[in-house]
Each structure stands twice: as structure tokens, then as C-alpha cells.
User: Fold this.
Amino acid sequence: MSMEITNVCEYEEIAKQKLPKMIYDYYASGAEDQWTLKENRNAFSRILFRPRILIDVSNIDMATTVLGFNISMPIMIAPTAMQKMAHPEGEYATARAASAANTIMTLSSWATSSVEEVASTGPGVRFFQLYVYKDRDVVRQLVKRAERAGFKAIVLTVDTPRLGRREADIKNRFTLPPFLTLKNFEDLDLGKMERTNDSGLASYVASQVDRSLSWKDVKWLQTVTSLPIIVKGVMTAEDTRLAIQAGVAGIVVSNHGARQLDYVPATINCLEEVVKAARDQVPVFLDGGIRRGTDVFKALALGASGVFIGRPVVFALAADGEAGVRKVLQMLGDELELTMALSGCTSLKEITRHHIMTETDMPRTLSRL
Assistant:
């Protein structure tokens, strides 16, 4: 790369220059007015630090475990669809980068590489994100294939009974480019998207994804697989309690990258409510708006067990392939380590709610920042 990349956000501009408009817009867009899209980032800037000084920070340990798997840092890869639109190596490159960083990759149901292909890249802890199709045999087969391919958990997306209204995709008549397929569904004749006078993905979801999905289906999924099930898309205390009653292994506080319901709060502003309701019974993770190590620290301080990154991965992939994704993981890890040192924390367990202040902790004057 000609210019030295010094932070994660710089990859988005490069991706915008490199990618066809339809593809960049698909990755970058949020739902409707995109208020939540902006808020996912802005909310982090309203959380400030209370650093502790004169603590020996010569050795900093960012290692953690997720569902019993050891990883180098609490930063993992969120499921993002159709990565070969960003780069010819797509999910293969992402899988190798995650493995090199010793962290977890979540493969999207709508990947342009299959579970078997991603497994073939070599060792690594990988989770499989699942959309529940109307045809439950499709779901059963897919989960079995993920299991056989060595995936370690199912990440069930629960915020998409219908696809959110992403206006750029409607304007661009978004569809999967003809040389690509949704590889996991290829042999089931569900691998292609029709070009419609709407978003091709919205039409595909309307025809294939089950709108009737409910808590009873979470119970059903547990009869289909022995893998732990993480539910992704929880925003409230009420649903946290129901998720725990349903026997889930973990929760991801997520608003789907602000691509589903606009005017939901930023995920960082839902996190504390969910963490309190979970009462340490299951780990709670967060995605949405993570672009800096400081963001990761703030999420951990509010009780997250780790975070997932989505758009930074596809933008880095578009800009520089596997090396780009490696660099994003490296920069976020380095920034988190520095934030920990400057806050006086030498391990993740030392990061507490006392290390930050949110608007509720601030005097009135500050809260208008």
C-alpha cells in the first residue's frame, strides 16, 4: 500500500475508491435514515475514561476464553455476507487472517465460500452464523455440515424476520454478481439471487427466510445440534431473560450493523441493560461501531466478554485482502493494549465499570458534549 495505514477507518475510504458502487453501498449502508448507523459510532464518543495511574503496566495480557476456547484478545470477526464481492479470496482470506491473529471468525450463512472451503484453510476456531430458512431440512443439513467441518458454535441471527429497508440497495437494484454464489446453498438450488426492481437480497429473504421464527425454534435447534447456540440481535433485558430460559450459551448485543430497525439505540447503549439482566449466567458480546481499541475497552468496561467487528473486515479485505484483515486485527489489538496500559489495567479482568464514565455518571454540563 502506498500510504501507511494508521487506523481502521482509513480502509473504508480505500474500499470506497476500489469497489463498484453497488458493492460498496451494500457493505456501507444502514437502514432508512441511517440514524442508528451514525449513532453506533457516536455513542462511543460520549463515553469517557477514568484512567488509574502509577500501576505497573510492563506486562499486559489481553488473552481470554470464549465458550472455553482460548483466544489472543477479545476481538473477533462478525459474520458478514458475500465477502468475495470485496476480494477474490473472500472468506478464505478472512479465515486465514483470524487464524493468524489467534481469534475467532464467524462465517455468514450467506458466504460466497462454503463451510467446507473455509475449514480447508487450516486450523482455527470458527463459529457459523445461521439464518433459519422456511425449509427446515435446509437448516438441518447446513448445521450438520458446519458441525462436520469443525465449526464450534452456531450464531443464530434473531433480528431478521424480514430484511431492513436499505435504500441504496433498492436504488442500485442490488444483487449478487453473476460469477458468485451463496456457496452454502449452491447444491440446494438456493445459491442465486434474482435481479428484481427492488433489493435482490430483500426479495431473497422474503422468499426464503422464516418470518415465524420464535423461541420454540431455538429449542428445536438444540435438538438438531449439540453445538452451543449464541443468539445475535438481543437489545433488551426482557429478551435476555428469555434467551437464558431458552438455554442459549451466549448473547450478542447487536442491531445488525444498523441495517435492520432504524432508531434503535447504539449497541453500546444497550449493553449495560443486557449485561445486568444476564447476571453472569451467559457471556454477553457486542458488535456495531467498533473502530478503535478505545471502543473495545469501553465495551469490556460495560460488561462485554468480547466484541465482534464486521465492516472493518470487508473494507480491509477490499483494500488489501488477507493482509488488510490481519492489519485491522493487529491495529485494534495494539490500540486495546495501549488503552489498557494508559488506564492502568494489565488484564481484561482488571477492566471495570469504574474505568469509564457514561452520560449518566457525568454532571449536566458534560453530558451535552
Remarks:
- The CA atoms of residues 40 and 266 lie 4 Å apart.
